Request: fold
Amino acid sequence: MTKKVLLVDDNPTLLRALGRVLEERFDIETAESGTRALEMLEQEAFDVLISDFKMPSMNGIQLVTQVQKEWPNTRCMILTGNQDEDSLNQATNIAKAYRLLLKPMPVTELINAIEEAVRE
Reply:
């Protein structure tokens, strides 16, 4: 059974690129905002949510925190280019993301992270 993955990023170019790479292995949906992602989660279940850290109006920390509260079976990961200690602490301690992914990362590493999340 194909696992459903929701990618959330305010950069439409990145979303399209990631979606194309991952769609061969997973059922991929995309959202350009945290608000849109929440709307989509209300309509259907996702196995994994991967959210960008920095987004306008609702950042990845806020999104993941809400998703974990309302949809605890969805594994949440945060994708960030910010490698400062404060950002990393927020992602791991406040949002308690299943995994923190650092940009840029090889696609194979992203695929492995998703496969690991859906195996557990």
Q: What stands out?
A: The mean pLDDT is 88. The first strand starts at residue 4 and ends at 8. The chain has one domain: 4-119. DSSP finds five helices and five strands in the chain.
